[in-house]
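ESCALATION

Customer reports they have been waiting on this structure for their group meeting. Please prioritize. Original submission:
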Amino acid sequence: MLPAAYRPLLRTPAVGRALATSVLARVGQPAGGLAVVLLAVDRTGSYGAAGLISAVWTVAGGIGLFLWSRLVDRGRSARQVLIATSLLSAAGLVALAAIPISTVGVLAGLTAAAAVFEAPVPPVTRALWPVLLPGADARAAMYSLEATVQELTYIVGPSLAGAAAAAASPAAAVVLAGGIELVGVLLFAATPGLQRVGSGEPAPIRWAALRPLLPLFAAGFLVVSGFSWVEVGIVGAAGAAGETALAGALIAVWSVGSMIGGLVAGARPPRRGPARRLMVLLAAVAVGQGLLAAAPSLLVLGVLLALVGAVVAPALGGVYTLVERFAPAGAVTQTFAVLSVAFLSGAAAGSAPAGLVVQAYGPSWAFLLAAVPPALAAVIVAVTMVRRVAAPSAGG
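Update from on-call: job pushed to the front of the queue and completed.
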């Protein structure tokens, strides 16, 4: 049952529909992320190659998110951008699945072509909340709720991809991911209020205006890098147990824990400030991810993932809230796109070495090293953000 604190938000016109359709539109991204990793493992037999392909997927996706978000802030119709990019991305995924090639370079090129055209649903959605919810407290609660509900994408998406790979083939999982993305984005593009996103005036980001956000971008980069180490470690652990298809289910369990934790934490305003709570949550992420290395079986790993996941959505919601507070006026979509690029770059920075570590030393080492990036993120927030957030901000 949804906590009472969220109900006024969902009664606001268009908010409930926008949230539901935006989440559906994002299911294809994690489904595609796991599907291309499984396809790379199937065709090359190498976890190192799979880590590289995963990195290409995230980097190219981040570049595309920023480019298409910039178009939206410059006045291009958000609906047109969403529809066009989703069509091209789906076509790229079909091509990746249909061309029976095992050369890593070709796989990487086709993956990049599909990923760069991913529809910019996350930054457009986060730019939509200030349009629909003018109150700062309501927006903060909405960012927390969104960070929580988006975990459904990591439950449904990988589960569908894993099931398709097990029942048919990894190539079928890639095609399924493209279809999910296309259908979801078309539904999101029809939601009310979307036409009001974007100022209609050129609003390029002035990098000096982003200086207050740099610690948050760095923290986002690091914490998502840690998540990427965990994800590759999960695939490696499932493969080592001879149950590769269970990787999607394990990722889904991780996300269920995140969703439950986010619902509980998001309904309770931080008593000592959002930056201080973010610092504590990041430290908890670090400790929990390191403990995953102690799992002696996939069953125990699943239990630990559910527990560790409880701090994931609250941590991401804290980042969204602080980024919105300091976002430059007139460039909200681009600012959240930069955050998305930081997230995706962090995922890429974690995926590539994580694949090599799993290949050489096993998944336990990947889980141990997954603790390092969020620990550094906690230090950054503690040093740079705790006192600053107490002062009035110009961007909120």
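Sent to customer with the following note: The domain at 4-390 is CATH 1.20.1250.20 (Growth Hormone; Chain: A;).
Escalation resolved.
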